[in-house]
Design brief:
The protein has two domains: about 5-155, Ribonuclease III domain (Ribonuclease iii, N-terminal Endonuclease Domain, Chain A); about 160-225, Double Stranded RNA Binding Domain, CATH 3.30.160. α2 packs antiparallel against α7, α3 packs across α4 and α3 crosses α8. Residues about 150-155 have low confidence and may be disordered. The protein has ten helices and three strands; from the N terminus they run αααααααααβββα. A hairpin with a 6-residue loop joins β1 (about 175-185) and β2 (about 190-195). It has helices at about 5-15, 20-30, 40-60, 65-75, 80-90, 100-105, 110-130, 130-155, 160-170, 210-225, and strands at about 175-185, 190-195, 200-210. The chain is globular and about 60 Å long. The protein has a three-stranded antiparallel β-sheet.
Length: about 230
């Protein structure tokens, strides 16, 4: 079995779909640095399929959610950070075909590349098996993420949103987020981000496995320092 055949076989096992036309899988696993037949068109298609499947899942399983809540939960589930974490769960990076330069720079562990590749995989499954198959695959790989994150998202808005709304209500400038440090190996990075509210002389830091999660934690730290005032969820 060739290396490319191994990639397809491993991917099929991890997502629960055996590709009938292998070229769809290979295109999904090919970064633009590798060659002309890369995965960006499939990424575009997969993004649309993913949003529809997640929207349908939320609509069916949460009849009490209004439109705003549905939009907020879906946005939380399909953003770059959540897709990156799911791609890591199925070890998608080790299956990607990339140019040597991209490999040396740690591209196989980069959140933007992994999240885009995951969407491309969904697009490939759609092209190979149709919408019903794509929906089954997406529901499977999202199962853990959905049951873990959706309830928390419904309970309250995320920390960055709450902080922004609090500051806007007080007619204060928005916070400034700055990347302080990235530590760890390429496959296990930790981000440190600062959140500064200059008019209140508040600076707090947060850490996380993605920059977005670090920003959320930093915003939460600022909100904690404001607990003497009412900060609504």
């Amino acid at each position: 079995m060739s290396r490319d055949e191994q990639r397809i076989s491993i991917l099929s096992d991890r997502i629960g779909w055996k590709f009938r036309a292998s070229h769809w899988a290979m295109e999904a696993l090919t970064h633009r640095s590798f060659g002309d037949h890369h995965n960006e068109r499939l990424e575009f298609l997969g993004d649309s399929v993913l949003n529809l499947v997640v929207a349908r899942m939320l609509f069916e399983e949460n009849p009490h959610f209004d439109e705003g809540t549905l939009s907020r939960v879906r946005s939380n589930m399909v953003n770059r950070d959540s897709l990156y974490l799911i791609a890591n769960d199925i070890h998608l990076g080790e299956l990607l075909r990339m140019g040597e330069g991209e490999l040396r720079s740690g591209g196989a562990f980069r959140p933007s590349i992994l999240s885009d590749a995951l969407e491309a995989v969904f697009g490939a499954v759609f092209c190979d098996g149709g919408f019903d198959v794509a929906e089954t695959v997406i529901r499977k790989v999202f199962a853990k993420s959905y049951h873990k994150s959706a309830p928390q998202t419904v309970i309250e808005k995320d920390a960055k949103t709450r902080l922004q709304e609090w500051l806007q209500a007080k007619h204060l400038p928005l916070p400034d987020y700055q990347l302080v440090q990235i530590s760890g190996e390429d496959h296990d990075r930790t981000f440190c981000v600062s959140c500064t509210v200059g008019t209140l002389s508040i600076i707090r830091q947060g850490v996380g496995k993605t920059r977005r999660s670090a920003e959320q934690q930093a915003a939460e730290q600022v909100l904690s320092s404001l607990k003497g005032d009412e900060v609504s969820a």
